[in-house]
Design a protein that fits this description.
Structural class of chain A: alpha+beta
Low-confidence stretches of chain B: none
CATH architecture of the largest domain in chain B: 3-Layer(aba) Sandwich
Strand order of the largest sheet of chain B: 1-7-6-5-4-2-3
Radius of gyration of chain B: 25 Å
CATH architecture of chain A: Beta Barrel
Order of helices and strands of chain A: EEEHEEEEEHHEH
Number of domains of chain A: 1
Distance between the termini of chain B: 25 Å
Strand content of chain B: 5-15%
Number of helices of chain B: 17
Largest sheet of chain B: 7 strands, mixed
Number of domains of chain B: 3
Number of strands of chain A: 9
Oligomer: heterodimer
Shape of chain B: globular
CATH topology of the largest domain in chain B: Aspartate Aminotransferase, domain 2
CATH class of the largest domain in chain B: Alpha Beta
Largest sheet of chain A: 6 strands, antiparallel
Number of strands of chain B: 12
CATH topology of chain A: OB fold (Dihydrolipoamide Acetyltransferase, E2P)
CATH superfamily of chain A: RNA polymerase II/Efflux pump adaptor protein, barrel-sandwich hybrid domain
Radius of gyration of chain A: 13 Å
Order of helices and strands of chain B: HHHHHEHEHEHEHEHEHEEEHEHHEEHHH
Helix content of chain B: 25-40%
Mean pLDDT of chain B: 95
CATH class of chain A: Mainly Beta
Strand order of the largest sheet of chain A: 1-2-3-9-8-5
Number of helices of chain A: 4
Largest interface: A-B, 10 and 9 residues
Helix content of chain A: 10-25%
Mean pLDDT of chain A: 93
Chain lengths: 126, 486
């Protein structure tokens, strides 16, 4: 449920390094806690985002939460499918439910994120 | 007819049926096209339902019988202070001198209304420890925005343009929303494991760019901020303003005053603390109280007294301007005035004491059956967690809240504050008897038992309401907001 190769933020985003770019999503834990997601607001391609600053919003039947960028850089891809099908965030948070791809300015920021074991400890499932 | 079978009024429509027949006009009829530009005329007549007068009356009377209200039963909706509203307040607000007064009536003919506002301002100042009050904001969140605009004006007057507003992670959602609407960047400060603002974290996030710290006290967990004086020192040390979200003033009346705790500005929810029907039952009022340091920026007009005469003062050079038409929701002010005058100082203190006693009594009854993440003496409300029921039986807080409807209660606030998993937020208020609290606690105990012994019963609740479990996901993703002819 928490892939080994990902980096995790304390705000429950995951980051996956893909050929120098970083794909971002939310964890299974966050998706379950939010319950059914009904709306996802993402920035347009080209937006500059800052490490652990809000870059978007996810709304579920329970609550509205900010999305935090796990790495600084420029948004180069946005998951348009979430606009009409926000439910894929719940169904496949590490696959089809990704949020954005970021062209990072400082890859070393990923080292400040948590590894799988540290993240499991954070959510009390270690 | 059974209330659950009330059809849409459109479905009752029969072509040509009318409730009222108008007499033939006794003035010349002018075609609409001659007096209204074509762009503004509709192409087809609106599809109003065509029904008789008794059909209209029966339709809406049946619908009203589906309502739940504090006049029908216990309404423990945490954070909303759904206390019983004395009917004498309604009599006062309906006095013809108030209800028939035109907002443009000359001051000479509105002395009673102006005096009421002036005196209510004095009363709220005494209760809160603030120096001045504006009555214009229409409700709490509007008050927040008004206060932040005053703070921004005061800072600009000092030659400063600050960029940030700090809120705790337990804050009402309106706090960050108001800050963002006022152009501020929102910074969230964590709560500590006793449910207080994490002082160390507050020290880290504070700097010279912070315009204000918005705090609710007692906070949304129903807990008094134990370090309020230290918070005041830290915030003022950076030249920022300390804002009180007055939603929970019910717990402090006559016991402690925000002004004495170091708050510079606050809003009151007259419709909560000072007893006016709300939550779908009527408009609110969110007056803002300020210390003298912010008084020059109050919206216009303020109500002033000169000898025995009361007048509206628009001559305030540093005002942020008008933020609402006329003088706010005046009839709500009348109700609040009647309520405060009926209770007096001693009575208001008793309100707070009984509200706190009721909450702690109910908490003690419920504690064995639910988790209590912050185990402290509470103030006017408390927050339980349904995480045990979710983990062990797959029954969520939402399910249990729905099941409460079957027992004849309004559900508590759920999933707020956000820092409590599966939150159940209960505020009994001071107007409930011990018998009511016992009966509610018994219903909650039985639901906790059902969650263990018959979880499907709870998961599929409610069973006795006119409408069964709604598909909230479908409603949010594909809202169907209007009737269309088939």
């Amino acid at each position: 449920m928490y892939p080994e190769e990902l980096r995790y933020s304390t705000e429950h985003e995951w980051a996956r390094l893909e050929n120098g770019r970083v794909r971002v999503g939310i964890t299974k834990f966050a998706a379950d806690r939010l319950s059914d997601v009904v709306f996802v607001e993402l920035p347009p391609v080209g937006t500059e985002v800052q490490f652990m600053q809000p870059f978007g919003v996810v709304e579920s039947v329970k609550a509205v939460s900010d999305l935090y960028a796990p790495v600084s850089g420029k948004v180069v891809e946005v998951n348009e499918a979430l606009k009409d099908h926000p439910e894929i965030l719940n169904q496949d948070p590490y696959g089809e439910g990704w949020l954005v791809v970021i062209e990072p300015t400082d890859l070393s920021e990923l080292q400040k994120l948590l590894g799988r074991d540290e993240y499991l400890k954070l959510i009390g499932e270690a | 007819m059974n209330p659950r079978e009330v059809p849409l009024i459109f479905e009752e429509s029969v072509p040509g049926r009318v409730a009222t027949r108008f007499p033939d006009p006794d003035v010349p009829v002018v075609p609409l096209e001659e007096i209204i530009p074509k762009d503004y005329l509709r192409e087809r007549p609106p599809e109003f339902p065509e029904v008789s007068e008794p059909e209209v009356v029966r339709h809406f009377t049946w619908l009203s019988r589906r309502n739940y209200a504090v006049d029908l039963g216990f309404y423990p909706l945490g954070s909303c202070t759904m206390k019983y509203n004395p009917k004498i307040n309604e009599d006062a607000a309906r006095l013809p001198g108030f209800s028939r007064l035109h907002p443009y009536a000359p001051e000479e003919l509105a002395q009673g209304a102006l005096r009421l506002m002036w005196e209510l301002e004095q009363l709220l100042c005494e209760i809160s420890g603030m120096d001045r009050v504006t009555f214009q904001p229409a409700a709490g969140a509007h008050g927040e925005l008004t206060a932040l605009m005053m703070i921004r004006a005061a800072l600009e007057d000092r030659g400063e343009r600050r960029t940030k507003v700090v809120v705790p992670d337990s804050a009402h959602g309106t706090n960050p929303a108001s800050a963002a609407m006022c152009g501020y960047q929102v910074v969230v400060v964590r709560s500590d494991d006793r449910g207080n603002v994490d002082i160390q974290h507050l020290r880290q996030v504070m700097d010279e760019q912070v315009a204000a710290f918005m705090l609710t006290n007692p906070n949304t967990l129903g807990l008094f901020e134990e370090h309020i004086l230290e918070i005041e020192e830290i915030v003022h040390g950076y030249g920022a303003f300390l804002y009180l979200d007055g939603a929970n003033l019910n717990a402090m009346l006559g016991i402690t005053r925000p002004g004495d705790q170091g708050f510079d500005v606050m809003h009151f929810n007259l419709h909560k603390t000072f007893s006016t029907p709300h939550g779908g039952g009527g408009p609110g009022a969110g007056p803002v109280g300020v210390k003298n340091v912010l008084a020059p920026y109050l919206p216009v007009p303020t109500v002033e007294r000169e000898g025995e005469r009361f007048y509206l003062n628009y001559n305030r050079p540093k005002t942020i301007g008008k933020i609402r038409a006329f003088y706010g929701n005046f009839a709500v002010l009348v109700r609040a005035y009647a309520y405060i005058r009926a209770l007096g100082g001693e009575g208001l203190r008793q309100v707070a004491e009984t509200a706190v006693l009721n909450a702690n009594y109910l908490l003690t009854l419920l504690r064995p059956y639910f988790d209590l993440p912050y185990n402290r003496l509470c103030k006017h409300e408390f927050v339980l967690s349904g995480r045990r029921q979710k983990k062990e039986y797959g029954v969520t807080t939402r399910d249990m809240a729905k099941r409460l409807l079957d027992y004849g209660y309004h559900a508590p606030t759920i999933y707020f504050p956000l820092i409590v998993e599966e939150a159940i937020m209960i505020e009994p208020t001071e107007t409930e008897t011990r018998k009511t609290l016992d009966a509610f606690a018994e219903a909650m105990r039985r639901i906790a038992e059902e969650a263990a012994t018959n979880p499907e019963l709870v998961r599929s609740a409610p069973h006795t309401t006119p409408v069964k479990r709604l598909d909230e996901v479908q409603a949010a993703r594909n809202p169907n907001l209007r009737w269309r002819p088939t």
